[in-house]
Amino acid sequence: MVKICCIGAGYVGGPTMAVIALKCPEIQVAVVDISVPRISAWNSDTLPIYEPGLDEVVKKCRGKNLFFSSDVEKHVSEADIVFVSVNTPTKTQGLGAGKAADLTYWESAARMIADVSKSNKIVVEKSTVPVKTAEAIEKILTHNSKGINFQILSNPEFLAEGTAIQDLFEPDRVLIGGRETPEGQKAIKALRDVYAHWVPMDRIICTNLWSAELSKLAANAFLAQRISSVNAMSALCEATGADVSQVSHAVGKDTRIGPKFLNASVGFGGSCFQKDILNLVYICECNGLPEVANYWKQVIKVNDYQKTRFVNRIVSSMFNTVSGKKIAILGFAFKKDTGDTRETPAIDVCKGLLGDKAMLSIYDPQVSEEQIQRDLSMNKFDWDHPVHLQPTSPSSMKQVSVVWDAYAATKNAHGICILTEWDEFKTLDYQKIYDNMQKPAFVFDGRNIVDVAKLREIGFIVYSIGKPLDEWLKDMPAVA
Ligand code: UDX
Ligand code: ADP
């Protein structure tokens, strides 16, 4: 029986291993983590992450061929294939601070694998890492190998949160990179055989190690670039009276461009896009390619600009001050159908409003008060460390209250900001909300989900990203 162990029971490791266990009943899959509370949650009825369809998959396999454990060393030593899916934060200090990946957790996982292994193993990079990490890991493993053979593979994960299970069931492609030696090719085949249980062969792409590592950074950079492109257009639409949705639709009809990932928004978030682009930028700089580095840096700059622009629209529309005003924040997660808040644009928007002394009342159907308070008080990049190494619980901010209902959040508010596109925000009773708000009542839609005409009819002053401006906003400066 083939045994698989995955180090890191996070957003990637947990769902990916659950699906492997489901599709390969004869393979035993163990998911291990240094965080005991996280493992306990995986073994309970309340999984540590919210992901549609995940509960069902876990329930079908847990205790049969899927196990969650904090006995990291035991499961690693027994495994034939070890996936590594640990945190890779952006460095905050020292060489490459603010850009380079901090590989502390990866290195410690690699050293542990070398320490406890008694048989040959295939070690699979699953977390996104900078190009050439595999080579570094290979060095750690072979210098500590005691005669054991380790084959390194890069098998980047392309799932998106909120659709992870669907993405894993029917991936556009599975990418496996390995050494071009006979042993390397044998290892590639072993991993390909796992995916071949449910993925058609023509969707399993095998490459060399460096291509696989770089493809992941490139794919995320291209996707983020599309969003920054459409967001840059949204600013121009507001200035000219064009409607960004109409422009996206027209542009996306070109089959060479395609319709996906062209929704203008308050900005992209999530654990990957910014981090992977920063990594790409750093690699370019290290390789003497400043022009290429600057090209990609611009994608992040436009994203930051979009968030700042949104805050400025709010403040300038509300007579240039939000001091002491109650602003309802609807949605805090970085996208709908997830409770994940990593790099969510809501953090920067809320911080911007708090900087102008607003009183925030926040509602998100999947994000806890503790998480929101933590996010608003944490330093940049601190989120990407194992939970037990993150700063301890912050003292909660007086200007921020977290409520469990959109109506409570908006009661007596001066303005509403929609920051996540949760479906429930489309069908709220906006008349009731309007009746209970201060006047003039504002809606700032950062996701273009409300019916603008209907809301204006009710009496709201509405700002939607990239849409023709409300008369009210026309003479107000939007850029700092
Ligand atoms: C992304 C990649 O899609 C995935 O392939 C990779 O494995 C990990 O990173 P994820 O971050 O989970 O996945 O979500 P994604 O759907 O890509 O959205 C990222 C951000 O972009 C979200 O904040 C989302 O709201 C925003 N977005 C997306 C837009 O603003 N407009 C769009 O048109 C699409
Ligand atoms: P991702 O989104 O890439 O899955 P997460 O932060 O959700 O990232 O998950 C990474 C997990 O890896 C965390 O649960 C963390 O506790 C775990 N982890 C980090 N270092 C180690 C290690 N050396 N051994 C075991 N687990 C680790």
Automatic annotation (TrEMBL):
**One cellular-component annotation, GO:** nucleus
Q: Where is the catalytic site?
A: 272
Give yes or no: UniProt keyword NAD. yes
Q: Which residues form the UDP-glucose/GDP-mannose dehydrogenase C-terminal domain?
A: 328-452
Alphabetical UniProt keywords? NAD, Oxidoreductase
A single GO molecular-function term is: UDP-glucose 6-dehydrogenase activity
Protein origin, superkingdom: Eukaryota
> What is the protein name for this chain?
UDP-glucose 6-dehydrogenase
Source organism of this protein record: Gossypium trilobum
Q: What is the lineage of its organism?
A: Eukaryota, Viridiplantae, Streptophyta, Embryophyta, Tracheophyta
